[in-house]
Specification:
With 289 residues, this protein is an alpha/beta fold. It has a single domain, classed as Rossmann fold. Helices cover 44% and strands 18% of the residues. The protein contains 9 helices and 9 strands. Strands 3-2-1-4-5-9-8 form a 7-stranded mixed β-sheet, with helices on both faces. A two-stranded parallel ribbon has the order 6-7. The radius of gyration is 18 Å and the shape is globular. Bound molecules: S-adenosylmethionine. The site of S-adenosylmethionine (SAM) has 24 residues, from helix 2 and strand 2.
Amino acid sequence: MKSAPSFIDLTSDRSRGGGTARSERLRHKREQSSVEGACMAELNSNAEWKQWGKDDPLWAVASWDGKQRGGASPWTDEEFYALGESDWRDFMSHWQHYGVSTESCLEIGCGAGRLTKQLALHFDHVYAVDVSPEMIDRAQKAIERGSVEFSVIDGLHLPQGDGSVKAVFSAHVLQHLDNTDVGFMYFRKFYRVLGAGGTIMVHIPLYQFPIDTGLAGALMSSPYAVRRFLSNISAGAKRRLGKKTMRFTRYPIDTLRAYLSNCGFKRVEFRIFPVKSNGGYHTFVFATK
Ligand SMILES: C[S@@+](CC[C@H](N)C(=O)[O-])C[C@H]1O[C@@H](n2cnc3c(N)ncnc32)[C@H](O)[C@@H]1O
């Protein structure tokens, strides 16, 4: 989680340059099966998150200036979990307004349990998953309530059964995946594990081009394509050198809306609101099965 972004994150970004919203949708359909295949192997992004979990789990979750291990004023447990309480109040008021059952919730990417601690107070049963054993360990130590079941996962496949939960929540996770294809596929899994009438609240940085079609659309998207290309090279080089990276992947709003309805989701809503803790604007998607 980056600190205090003071802008609404609907910037002109695109995961791959060129193409219209329709061609992006077709591309996703075409590539879904190959991504599914590729994801049988481990995701590249898992390696750095396992390392972040070992090196500085609290700062990796809330990357505020000076709060890193060895920084001017490193996160204390009290501050870190108080941040979770404050942010959860903001998140929850929106989810309650949209509508959510308190029966059970699956949290994707629970990290050190900043928000899991709050979910445990709100939902009768919580399932929390993450790719980093150290993050899970930290979360387990912070949460006394026995109603949370933790699992270390491979980063895409979910151990929960079909229709087994009434809510899916995630914050500051999909932005750290290597590309939008992996993130999109996660939504299909969310649909599978949700029971009828269940809802999702998922934090996801979004973008939309003013013009999405034809030559103008292609021209507008090309700077972002170059940026993603360079970012992929830089992340690959860091990984080869054994250095940690933190990806920031944005998702095209029109493609996401179409993708979610293709999955079967209904009442798709996007909300952008600031949290009280640092004034940072957060973009969430809500949807119902
Ligand atoms: C920035 S932290 C956010 C933690 C927590 N959601 C919060 O807001 O306090 C991102 C978390 O996502 C986890 N993560 C990264 N890739 C993941 C994936 N593919 N599936 C599930 N969790 C993932 C990381 O290990 C890390 O704990």
